[in-house]
Specification:
The structure is a homodimer. By secondary structure, the first copy, chain A, is an alpha/beta fold. Chain A has 2 domains: 170 residues, NAD(P)-binding Rossmann-like Domain (Rossmann fold), CATH 3.40.50; 146 residues, Dihydrodipicolinate Reductase, domain 2. The first copy, chain A, is 35% helix and 26% strand. Chain A contains 12 helices and 14 strands. Strand 13 of chain A pairs antiparallel with strand 13 of chain B. Chains A, B: Homodimer. Chains A, B: It catalyses: meso-2,6-diaminopimelate + NADP(+) + H2O = (S)-2-amino-6-oxoheptanedioate + NH4(+) + NADPH + H(+).
Chain lengths: 327, 327
């Protein structure tokens, strides 16, 4: 029996909780500690997990094989990933697409100095969707690619709703337009903007006495967020919000419609239907944590992305087992 | 500008022709020659391609970066891949699942002796479907996997039909059962045999005066091929066979239905809808030919499968471009 992979988690929100659960599904891994900015003594009672203040991470050098970073992309990861990559192998889900190149450079430098390995920007988009965009473009260089997101909650759009005067609470779902998906599945290759592919469904709890028609107007005419989209606003009670909109479902599709030979249509589709976005993202992070440790054991250092990692490293099975069972 | 990848093709059936077309879609590649067991002088006139007898391959050592092997798995590849791997980097689509481990060993030995690199068993199944089985099992270790094939022509079953007395010609389509796919997409995880997931549709041209009911009975009761399946037999004219059944469509789905956390359902689906099976397989071989050359340039030798190869190597784009454009 090979040694267990010793995992640390940084951050204990929805994603960090998902990682704890995912580790329990992978018998080759063990959770050493969860690092948090909160007071670890106040958390200890919560569950059977060892909590440490994030400032204590350094003491765990040599005792943790990989740190799974579960902070946000806006402020946490740009600071935490380079810091921790100097000491540990890391995996994160940095998802600000436009800033990935500079993030990569910062982490790459830190990891090379620390002789560690960091997998950045994994999860499902960036992550599995990116892998499919790359795979399908490489196989069908003549073609068009379509990414659809949803049905799922968009945090940014939900926040925007909640800033509207008279709104007490609310949630926004991004919904791919089924008829557009069907056109592409049947071989059409229309030019589409994001707004042509998605609806926005808003469920809003209004404050008592608030003007619902005015709230609706403010939402549907909000630039960048809603003005360009087909947007519906449905007013619901606080109770309905709690019971019917507490989940974090998400998903989507990457479809490539390509041409080979003489106008031969070839369509590749990858899709996700997730009841919990953070639990699924956590499961992806955990598989890539295994790959990070193995790559590092093989002598690799620096920042890596999903594009650099063969799938064989994601599985606890040996290469010979994989060839026999799954090829 | 980096140097063009110089490609050779061995075998000039449907797959070999598909590879010629796929190379023309990839500007970083150039076709050097097609090697065949037939008389190359008789083929020269056919198209603007250089044909060589397969016995002349050795003369091309140093002039071809990768050989794409387009022979069959039954007798061609078990002989050709080890032979050619001793001299060239190779890519093939060996698809006899049960014999992959011994095929891998034979090719690995030849390639290591020749200091070359061979990617075996790529295409879509084995190939892209295998990649998805591995990826999704690694991410969702608690779950069930379903592979559906079709709608597509099965050569083996079409041959079986044609051996029935009174049958002049015929073709068999394997068709996934839509209602079963829908059950799995909606989260059910039934235990299913291949026969529970697929129908078999036979289109038969009977010889003049043949007993159609007897032909139908012989087909639907044929052990291994049809007896266990829901099978339909439709009699058509030779003309209809030519006009409506000349294509080689295929496709299918790999669906994993998994659980995270406390009974949270997570579904991952990968699907192909192909108007031409050989042209698509050829396109996959060509992308992996690029990866084979790059891996070899980095010093790797021996046999590899799709599980060993990071997707980044499939694309002509640089790692930095890929991170910026596709992650």
């Amino acid at each position: 029996m090979t040694q267990l992979i010793r995992v640390g988690i940084v951050g204990y929100g929805n994603l960090g909780r998902g990682v704890v659960q995912a580790i329990s599904q992978n018998p080759d891994m063990t959770l050493i500690a969860v690092f948090t900015r909160r007071d670890p003594n106040q958390m200890e009672a919560e569950v059977g997990i060892k909590f440490e203040h994030i400032s204590a991470a350094e003491k765990y050098i040599g005792e943790i094989d990989v740190m799974i970073l579960c902070g946000g992309s806006a402020t946490d990861l740009p600071e935490q990933t380079p810091q921790l990559a100097a000491m540990f192998n890391t995996v994160d889900s940095f998802d600000t697409h436009a800033k990935i190149p500079e993030f990569f450079e910062a982490v790459d430098q830190a990891a090379k100095q620390g002789k560690t390995l960091s997998v950045i920007s994994t999860g499902w988009d960036p992550g599995l969707f990116s892998l499919n965009r790359l795979l399908t473009e490489s196989i069908l260089p003549v073609g068009d690619e379509y990414t659809f997101w949803g049905k799922g909650v968009s945090q940014g759009h939900s926040d925007a709703i909640r800033r509207v005067p008279g709104v007490k609470a609310g949630v926004q779902y991004t919904v791919p337009i089924e008829s557009v998906i069907d056109r592409i599945r049947s071989g059409e290759t229309p030019e589409l903007e994001t707004r042509d592919k998605h609806l926005r469904q808003c469920f809003v709890v209004a404050e008592e006495g608030a003007d619902q028609e005015q709230i609706r107007q403010t939402i549907v005419s909000m630039p960048n967020y809603f003005a360009d989209y087909e947007t519906t606003v449905t007013f619901i009670t606080e109770e309905e919000l709690k019971t019917e909109h507490h989940g974090m479902p998400h998903g989507g599709f990457v479809i490539r419609s390509g041409i080979t030979g003489h106008k031969t249509k070839q369509i590749i589709e990858f899709g996700l239907k997730l009841e919990s976005n953070p639990e699924f993202t956590a499961s992806v992070l955990v598989a890539y944590a295994r790959a990070a440790v193995r790559l590092h054991n093989d002598g690799a250092v620096g920042a890596k992305t999903v594009f650099d990692i063969p799938f064989g490293l994601l599985s606890p099975k040996s290469a010979a087992e994989l060839r026999k069972e799954l090829l």
